[in-house]
Description:
Blueprint: H1 21-49, E1 54-62, E2 65-74, H2 75-86, E3 93-96, E4 99-102, E5 108-111, H3 118-126, H4 132-138, E6 154-157
Parallel strand pairs: 2-3, 2-4
Antiparallel strand pairs: 1-2, 5-6
Amino acid sequence: MGLFSFIKNAGAKVFGIGKTDAEEAAEVAAKELKMEQLAAQKLEETINDLQLQVENLNVFIDDETATVSGAANDQATKEKVVLVVGNSSGIAFVDDQMTVENVEPEAQFHTVVSGDTLGKIAKKYYGNAMKYPVIFEANKPMLTDPDKIYPGQVLRIPALD
Length: 161
């Protein structure tokens, strides 16, 4: 007879014990979907806990992209919601589908790098390091201390009035 060659993980398992690769892949996909749904729910709770008022808020996560929808009262709230979601572990992209009731100019965004301080960031955008409280206030309630920023974090940089 001799030795026959087969694809190791193809087909059904012997005597119904175990699962096929397709069945295992479907289970993994279902678990990932459940985790994404839980993460989206947790982000919605966090946004509400931060008292960022968004009517009909909905967060949907698909892989590393989060889609956010709802109606924010103002541009600052909309941008803060995007930052809460985007600065979360596992999220690489935010698809912003929110609307704004009171339209205002959009803020700039800055990704923190090693060595950044709010003062250095203020100097870069405003020409004056002492304007760092503007950036700190624009990122409340996500920031609780002007000295606690981290590399990779994205911050709102509003226009000066």
